[in-house]
Every structure is written in C-alpha cells, then in structure tokens.
Specification:
17 helices, 7-stranded mixed beta sheet, 6-stranded parallel beta sheet
C-alpha cells in the first residue's frame, strides 16, 4: 500500500495545479486552478487530447537524461608554450580539439548535456562551446571560474546540475583515451552501486591516485601519489555517478576530488579496469606521443588515419521523426518507432549520425527560428537522449523555395543541394565519400549524391510517395520501409572502410515488392 501512495503523489500535486476539462469536440481545456485567491483570473489553454495526456504524464513522471561534467579549466603549465594562447582542452589531436573527442564518446553513449568548467582563455572556450551548441547535438553548459575551484569545487558549485539527470559521467579533459564509455556504463548499471571509477595499469603509479580492490571490484583503499603505492591500478579520471552520489560529493564542499573526496568514499566505489589506450597529455612529451599514437588509435575505433569518420546523414520529418505535415510545434514531435534502435546500431558500427533538414517554414514566416531551435529541436534532442540515441548535430536550412519541385537546387544548403552535408563534414571532421544519406524524399537522396556520399537510401513514405517524375531521377537508389532496415543496408554495404565500398547508386535499385506496385 505504501508504494501505491508514492505513485499517487505526483498526480496529487498536478491536480492541485491544473483542472482538466472534458473534451469539447477535439479540444481539451487545461485550466490553471487558482492557487491563492479565488478572484484571480484563470488561464485557459486549449490543446489536443493527446497533448493534454502528455502534459499530465510529463508532469507526474519527469524525464531524465544522461549528463556529463567535463573538468577542463586547468591552466596547463607543463604544456607551455602551447597553452600560452590555447586552453589545453582545445589542443588538437589529428586536427580536432581534444575535448571534441570526449564529446564524440559522450554522444555515442547517449549523453545529452555536458557542463564544462573554464578559466584561462575563456574567450576561446566560450566561442568553441557556442559553435558546438549551434550544431544542435550535445548541449554544452559553461561554468566559468574566475578563481579555480578545483575538481571537487566545480561539482560543489553546480549541485543543481543533477536535478534531471539519470546519471552523471565525470571526465578529466586532459586525457586521451579510446575508452568505451558505453561498456563502462553497462558495468555501472549492472553492479547497481552509486559510483564507478575507471582504472588503468599505470607505469608510474607513484605519480597517480592508486586503488586496491576486493574480490567484487569494490575500492578498498585510495591513496594519491604515494611514495610506495599499494598497486598499479590508477584512477583514470573517468567516473560515473548516481545523482545521489553527485549530490553527496557536492555537499562535501571539497577542493580536489583525489585528495579531499575519493579517500572518504572508499567502500562505495566500484573499479572498472580499462586495458585499452589511455594517456594523460599533461606534459609536452606526453602530448607529442599522443599525437603519434592517434593514427593507429583512430583506426582501432573505426576512424580513418586522419581522424575523420564515416557518417549517416538523416532527414528529420518522416525519417528520424514520424511524418507530420508542417511540424510547427514541439507537441508534434514523436520519434519514429525504430529510431533509437537504428541510431544505436549505426553507432556501434562506427558511424556518426547527423540530421539535415529543410525548414522553409521559417523562411516563409510560418515558424520562427527561435521556436525551431529552442523548442522543436530541443524536444527532438530530449527524446533522443531519453532513447540513448543522440546525434552529432542537427543542421537546418531556412530558405523558402519558390516552387515545390524537390529536384531543383534553389539554394546550396537546401536539399537536394549538398551544402548542409558539406558544412557538417567540415565542422565534425566527417568523410563524405564514406558516408550515407537516408531520407523519405527525392531531395534527400539527391542531396547525398550531390555531396558525393558513397550512397543514399530512400525510406518509403506512404503519405508522400515519390512522383513518377521523381522516380525517373531516384529509381537507382535503394528503397526500404524502415529506418532499421536502412541502417542494416548501410552496415552490410560498408564492411570495408579502407575504402572500396560499393556505391549504392551503382549497385542497382533495391525495392520491396509490396511497395513497387504502390509507386508504379
């Protein structure tokens, strides 16, 4: 009976604040009930029955997402003169800032938001975070520290960051690693404890924070830079925390995690040993070695030797999302049923995932760009994070075409123009000739071809099938009925990324027999 009472509490709080009036025709009035004085005017908002239900559910059971804290504010004295003008987290590895490699790893395991602390060279860090936020994937929240707060102090200064977090991944940004955060996350979820610490075998354990483990992997001791370390298992600077543990650390008001906090948490931490590559790039020698190691490391992670990645570009409406004609409100956002499965499968096979969408409604004045980005796309990303299927970016073109011909290029960025794909490739370090385009319109698959992608796949849209004229131009592209089927096609035809992949446009059209008749 007690559990039933707990379930009713959110509903009780909601009913104290809202009155749901029975539907009139196809609308529902959600009336805000008076809170203090009976004579206060009541605010009534009319919404669809489905949205009214979603308001009630979301209020009673708020959603959470994976979050991350990236500790990146270190001065980097040992990396001078490199850090005299550039913060060490922005030092390049094969042409990409080190922090971006960590963001890639966080996106791959479904993290939707990251808090990053900054100090020295704040202008450069802020500019970089702004550019990441403009891409529309993971969202960066900057925590500027005029005076360095220390690794524990950053958490203490941001206790509210975990309010809507499912879990928090804490990362020291001055490490270069091929760690699988998804594997570490599975380990954390399996053992059910409040905290997991990534460990590695240190060559010089006296320079590290070293732990001992019991037979169940529980940390039994932690000492920082001991003259005689009890083991070679060292703290790798990556931790996964339950929200309760994050709040506990914040309440301790410490300065340094290794000295002030972790020794006090012995017995509550599980150790997870990573046997792959992991290097602290805090010295010039170590940074230079990381740059040398990067080529082989990237190859082991499915990247090319120059650090570029293959990508699958996804249309938004009718592909990533259920098709809605003229989507202009966040209440209309619903992921396609197999969206999460498809994106996770693509990521497991080394593909970045980027959304490219035509948004002529903004150019026509039907929809504001602010609503598109801050409401609609924010809701898309929230649902993707909830499904642990984040995308690397969401690119959009607001140009309003003069006609409805989906075969014409009226603007470089508007599909079938290749502009959005090329811009994403430049900003995210993607390799177009190893990438694919998936969409439900002729303009989508042609955009992939115009960007010289290895192939394009048409997702059949029963509500807006291709016209006979469009079929004359896109009949050579493979056609499938679901996003997971498209993902399987990509994976099957991209087994050799060295690179001699058969171009889908040259492989002959692939149609489901049941759908060929619908187009003919």
């Amino acid at each position: 009976m007690r559990s039933q009472g707990r379930l009713r509490q959110p509903w009780a709080r909601l009913c104290n604040h809202f009155v749901v009036v029975p539907p009139i025709k196809r609308a529902v009035a959600v009336r805000k009930a008076p809170l203090k004085r009976a004579h206060q005017p009541q605010r009534v908002v009319k919404v669809s029955p489905r949205l009214a239900f979603r308001i009630i559910i979301s209020s009673a059971f708020p959603t959470t997402m994976l979050k991350a804290v990236i500790l990146a504010a270190g001065i980097g004295k040992r990396l001078l003169p490199l850090t005299s003008r550039v913060p060490k987290c922005l030092l390049p590895i094969e042409g990409r800032p080190l922090i971006d490699l960590w963001l890639d790893s966080l996106i791959e395991c479904g993290v939707g938001e990251a808090l990053v602390n900054s100090h020295l060279h704040r202008d450069k860090m802020t500019a970089h975070f702004d550019s990441v936020n403009r891409r529309g994937g993971i969202r960066i929240q900057e925590s500027y520290e005029p005076v360095l707060l220390g690794s524990a102090g950053t958490i203490a200064a941001n206790p509210e960051f975990t309010d809507d977090a499912e879990r928090v991944i804490v990362i020291y940004a001055d490490n270069f690693s091929d760690v699988s955060l998804a594997s570490m996350l599975r380990f954390h979820e399996d053992h059910g404890g409040p905290m997991t610490m990534m460990l590695f075998r240190a060559e010089n354990p006296e320079q590290c924070g070293v732990v001992t483990l019991d037979s169940e992997g529980r940390v039994t001791s932690f000492v920082e830079k001991a003259a005689r370390p009890p083991s070679t298992l060292a703290n790798a600077g990556v931790m996964i925390l339950e929200p309760s543990m994050y709040r506990k650390i914040a309440a301790m008001k410490g300065f340094d995690l290794s000295f002030d906090i972790l020794p006090r948490l012995v017995g509550e931490i599980r150790g997870w040993v990573w046997s792959g590559y992991h290097r602290d790039i805090g010295t010039l020698e170590s940074y230079e070695q990381a740059a040398i190691d990067a080529e082989s490391l990237f190859a082991s992670r499915g990247r090319f030797s120059d650090g570029t990645r293959p990508c699958v570009f996804l249309d938004r409406d009718g592909t990533l999302l259920e098709f809605v004609d003229n989507l202009i409100d966040r209440s209309q956002v619903r992921l396609a049923p197999d969206c999460g499965t498809a994106i996770r499968r693509l990521r497991e096979n080394g593909f970045a995932c980027v959304v490219v969408t035509n948004q002529g409604a903004v150019g026509r004045g039907v929809l504001s760009e602010a609503v598109l980005v801050e409401e609609i796309h924010r809701e898309v990303l929230r649902q993707l994070a909830d499904a642990r299927a984040m995308v690397d970016g969401m690119y959009y073109c607001t140009f309003a075409p003069s006609n409805g011909n989906r075969l014409d290029i009226e603007h470089e960025d508007r599909k079938p123009g290749p502009g959005m794909l090329k811009r994403a490739a430049a900003e995210l370090h993607l390799r177009l000739d190893a990438s694919w385009m998936i969409g439900d319109m002729a303009s989508d698959v042609l955009a992939g071809a115009n960007a010289n992608c290895v192939g394009s796949i048409l997702l059949f849209n029963k509500k807006k099938p291709p016209t006979p004229l469009e079929m004359e131009h896109i009949g050579r592209f493979p056609m499938v009925s679901s996003l997971t089927e498209a993902a399987d096609w990509v994976i099957e035809h991209s087994s050799d990324l060295s690179y001699g992949v058969e171009r889908a446009s040259d492989a002959g059209a692939y149609f489901l027999k049941s759908e060929r008749s619908q187009i003919a």
